Amino acid sequence: MIKLSDLGQVYIVCGKTDLRKGIDGLATLVKEQFELDPFGGKVFLFCGGSKDRFKALYWDGQGFWLLYKRFENGKLNWPRNQNEVQALSSEQVDWLMKGFAINPKIKNTKACEFY
Question: What InterPro entries does its record include (predicted)?
Fold first, then answer.
């Protein structure tokens, strides 16, 4: 398995992205919509309508890598905030690749009475 966080800072493009876009379309989206540098050695993650696949765009200094992954079992827990991009920690990247939320929420409950 490729560990995306080893390549550089990982950014997640929240919401749905048209995965029919190739390298040029995704790099343009990163530059124009989010005002980030697609040539900066960062990894950008994009998810389409179904949450069982994503694309990753990465510039290695000589050219772009476009990685595509489809999970056979399970789904990604992708943030839904349209038009937002977030930097992820390596721990959050690992959580996402395992199907967990990148911002887990702990539900507060009242203490139970035992007596």
Answer: Transposase_IS66_Orf2 (IPR008878)
Tokens of 97: 């690749």
Is residue 93 in some structural domain? yes
In the three-class reduction of DSSP (H, G, I as helix; E, B as strand; rest coil), residue 66 is classed as: strand
Tell me whether residue 104 is in a domain.
no
Cβ atoms 57, 65 nearer than 8 A: yes
Total domains in the chain come to 1
Q: What is the pLDDT of residue 96?
A: 85
pTM: 0.84
| φ/ψ (deg, to 5) at 109 | -130, 160
| In a domain? residue 109 | no
